[in-house]
Amino acid sequence: MSTNAYYIPHKATWPIIGTVGLMMTLAGFANLLNGSSIGPAMMIMGFVVFIIMLAGWFTLQSVESESGMYSTQVGISYRMGMMWFIFSEVMFFAVFFGTLWYTRNLSVPWLGGFGDGPGRATHETLWPAFEAMWPTNGPGEIGGEYEPMGAWGLPFLNTLILLTSGVTCTWAHHGLLAKNRDQLIKGLIATVALGFLFVGFQAIEYHEAYTEMGLTLGSGIYGSTFFMLTGFHGFHVCVGAIILSVVLFRSWKGHFKPENHFAFEAAAWYWHFVDVVWLGLFVFVYMM
Amino acid sequence: MSAVVAEHDDHHDHHDHGPEKGLLRWIITTNHKDIGTLYLVFALAMFFLGGAMALVIRAELFEPGLQFVEPQFFNSMTTMHALIMVFGAVMPAFVGLANWMIPLMIGAPDMALPRMNNMSFWLLVAGALLLASTLFMEGGAPASGWTLYPPLVLQTGAALPFAIFSVHLLGISSIMGAINIIATIFNMRAPGMTLMKMPLFVWTWLITAFLLIAIMPVFAGAVTMLLTDRFFDTSFFDAAGGGDPVLYQHIFWFFGHPEVYVMILPTFGVASTIIPVFARKPLFGYSSMVYATASIAFLSFIVWAHHMFTVGMPVAGELYFMYATMLIAIPTGVKVFNWTATMWKGSMTFETPMLFSIAFVVLFTMGGFTGLMMSVAPSDFQYHDTYFIVAHFHYTLVPASIFILMAAAYFWLPKWTGNMYDEKLGQLHFWLSAISVNVLFFPQHFLGLAGMPRRIPDYAVQFADWNMVSSIGAFVFGFSQLLFLYIVIKTIRGGTGEEVTSEVWEDASKHSLEWTLPSPLPYHTFTTPPKEIPTEHF
């Protein structure tokens, strides 16, 4: 493929619209956090603009893609873009997994008087009675009494759900490659449904944690790491399920060919990534 | 030795669109040259804003006692100066150079993802606007230092969430830019341009882009935890809840150490591009330069806690981070020796870009050596949080990164604009900068060794003399940069009027593809890939 065929758009209006939307969303959120009355309205307006941008930009891309404007080389750029984006997401989750690892294995033991880390002095001068253990809400028992989340109820069910959705996603991909549109659509419907089912169960789990177990975001370091890790993951499941819904819609409209379906691939990669993160969560947050 | 594409004339292949008319051109452009220009102009503006803040700091420190500003505002100035220079000036300037030069150097028609390229730039502006807006907020701009350590930073007033979201926007912008650069380099090279035939600037940016994608999400995660600790009752950095404020420092520096290399690796790339042209020799040790850059990038991920020797760490940690840090001197030494060997027995001339590059080699080496001094953990207990560290990292940033950015501007402005800069004024700018930058930062080594702490608006009288010298250097350096602004504007608006060839510099086309194209560069270049590529650097 010669570089001649590389498609270079000559004007782009969506990026500036998206930038304005994102900036308003975040400035609105910051105002909201500061208790300013213009915060919520600004945030909602910005978010609407941002969503309009996403819809518009992706529609443009899919129209261009379907009209055959993207050469193989353009497709490679998109695939690289998605791969490195997922890598950046891996690093984002690595921060929170790292936080969990550091607190469980280093700083909480130091705070309990073990080892020669910086928390040791805090133990001796402030909380000599604190005993290191996990889970913990710290020597100050921040957030009061709570019950830790078990692994073998809803979380295990959710593990099965996500793993199954990975299978249905691959089944849909096979359908796409074999020009079996029916299998493609059914596979995607199953994947999206399982995705939203996961989110639904997680909502029930959170509800139980808050109303019955006393476990909140404010339950010391255990509550913080638990909700931050599972919360960001749940958010990613939502995003992935929405992306897959768009892919489902496009499949239903007859888009994608066996040799040209970048959007499907990107969505599937993202979905498998979210799946793998969940396995990490299940082992390190729930089981251990 | 050289195999150069037949020279184009001024008429460019015209089945393509020219630029949009008016202001709209800059808002919706997808052209790598336009976006490069936007980045560079933005970076220059931020350089002056951040510089003005530095002069507030140096004015206050001219004499002991409190003269001009409140301590809280002084601390806001040190914080904002750093954030603006790092995220607003140096990084965007190198991204601007990447936008301009990478497609030209690898023979590509544009960046791989032109629409996203536009968004990278505008998100940078959005992030910078959020950050700058904190200056006018209740409680003032963040005053915790650019590291934003808790618990201190959690005492920031209304500015805190804005600063945090600004970091998020700047991070998204950097990640998008970096993804674009990687996709461009891996996917858009002209036929025959194998990885080991790429100009070193392209190599250094490839590695830098990888660093950016790996670290910006880490910083985003760290500040997100600050946000939830302040507003959503989490205890990540609160020992009472079982968290640990030192955890923030580990995460921050896991980001922060590669981050400082994000600012220096492209610097190495530009220096490796300029020095061979004016030494009229191929770059010495091309492949060792590539491997050294990769080694430095790898090491940058495993040395972060050398920023935290005095914070408290198990002894094994202190030792590990000390030895690992010392290793960085090896690949860095390879580079310095390679630049020196490139100049050895070259038929050198000393135009402004070369002067800045040579100053970079000498002064960056000094900054490197003070870094080596501080890598020794027990010695660092003396230097930590003093003016010694301030002198160290300013030597690696100002007469290194900033000087190389100046060199790059003088080197490529004639190519970009088709006009020659005024060599006499350029040399004046160089000598003013090179002398004043040493007057500014060299005495800070003495202050630091004598025990003057950093980030304070007032100090004991025994530090008075060197502070005064340093402040004088600061004002001379700062105002000398107005001369640079003048030279740049004058060059854009016609320069000296002398004819600029496509090569600009003697035999430059042997080194890199951009010199095979006409000056000024047409709006679209390499719409068909070049037939042959320069091979001088082997």
From TrEMBL, chain A:
One of its GO terms (cellular component) is plasma membrane. The chain crosses the membrane at residues 12-32, 38-60, 81-102, 152-172, 184-204, 224-249, 269-287. GO terms for biological process: aerobic electron transport chain. It is an enzyme of class 7 (translocase). Gene3D superfamilies: 1.10.287.70, Cytochrome c oxidase, subunit III, four-helix bundle. It comes from the Bacteria. Its EC number is 7.1.1.9. Its main location: membrane. Pfam families: COX3. It is a multi-pass membrane protein. One of its GO terms (molecular function) is cytochrome-c oxidase activity. Residues 2-288 form the Heme-copper oxidase subunit III family profile domain. InterPro entries: Cyt_c/ubiquinol_Oxase_su3, Cyt_c_oxase_su3_dom, Cyt_c_oxidase-like_su3, Cyt_c_oxidase_su3-like_sf, Cyt_c_oxidase_su3_a-hlx. It is found in: Cell membrane; Membrane. Keywords: Membrane, Translocase, Transmembrane, Transmembrane helix. The keyword Protein transport does not apply. This is cytochrome-c oxidase. It comes from Methylotuvimicrobium buryatense.
